[in-house]
Amino acid sequence: MSAVDTKDLTAQQAAWDIAASVCDPEIPVLTIADLGILRAVEVDDAGGPGATAGKPAVRVTITPTYSGCPAMEAIRDDLAAAFAAAGHQHISVETVLAPAWTTDWMTEAGRAKLQEYGIAAPSGHSGAGGHSGRVRLALAVQCPQCRSLNTREITRFGSTSCKALYVCQDCKEPFDYFKVL
Asked: How far separated are the first and last CA of the chain, in Å rounded?
């Protein structure tokens, strides 16, 4: 690998790391990388359009958890602030809806962080794009407090549209469940 290739790779990784450090405004223990909505980070070379003072222009691509997600504007602002703090003056954030986000894109670390935060992580896989022929069954949702499976759904929509509100029948604690999408 040449020195130019190494430099480009380093700039690309640094830009990814900046974007990946941005937290979800609705669930602040998760980064947008943990959540799986960070799709791509592209770095234009230092001589390209939009680059200034040795800092390249950056394009970030994100996919909302659903098309009406109100957090996307805050995430866009947080991305701009994170890159500005790192000295990047030219950042563009593109929101793409296809392919549609699925909970399958969440990292294992993100699922563990949800559990530690008191939100039941999505159970199972969405099977996005492969629903034909199979009957989807509801699975028990484990309480993030006491780990009991003796839980019930109170309402399909919890504190955000991505979550449902459950209660544990054993410890009596209500909790959010991040729905499989």
From this structure: 41
CA-to-CA separations, 83 to 66, 74, 94, 110, in angstroms, rounded: 25, 14, 15, 23
Helix H or strand E encompassing 93 = strand 91-95
Contact criterion met (CB below 8 Å) for 38 and 94: no
Q: Where are the alpha helices (DSSP H) in the chain?
A: 3-20, 32-35, 71-85, 108-117
- Residues 85-110 have pLDDT tens digits of 999 989 999 999 999 999 999 999 99
CA distance 177 to 164: 5
Tokens 């699925």, residue?
102
Cβ-based burial of 8 (10 A; exposed 0-12, middle 13-18, buried ≥19): middle
Cα(50)–Cα(88) distance, rounded to whole angstroms?
10
Of 33, 34, 13, 28, give the one whose Cα is nearest residue 109: 34
Distances (CA, A) of 47 to 15, 78, 81: 17, 26, 23
- Kindly report whether the global pTM for this prediction surpasses the value 0.70: yes
